[in-house]
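Hi everyone, sorry if this is the wrong subforum. Our group has a chain we'd like a structural model of before ordering constructs, and none of us has done structure prediction before. Sequence below.
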Amino acid sequence: MLDRIGDEVAKATSIVRYQPGSAFQTHTHEFGEEILVLDGVFSDESGDYPAGTYVMNPPGSSHAPHSKTGCTLFVKLRHLGSDQVEREVLNTGNRPINTV
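Answer:
Right subforum, don't worry. Here is the predicted structure as tokens:
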């Protein structure tokens, strides 16, 4: 756990490791979730997301995450605003880097 504000249901930032074959039941993210796949392949019913993929699940969205091969994720929970209504999936490996 990198940061946590709250008890069982918390605003949190963490590194999450899925063992090969790991799966969670369908659940809802009341205040959204952001995921950056650091290693392996993360999956849900919408697709498979390899290392370098960013996924933003907006408030009120639900999914059933799993990983056939295992993966490591950077995850932020319960911090998105009501203006974030569209799910986003980006492959950061082919995004230009902006420098100032």
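For your construct planning: The chain has a mean pLDDT of 82. The CA atoms of residues 41 and 71 lie 5 Å apart.
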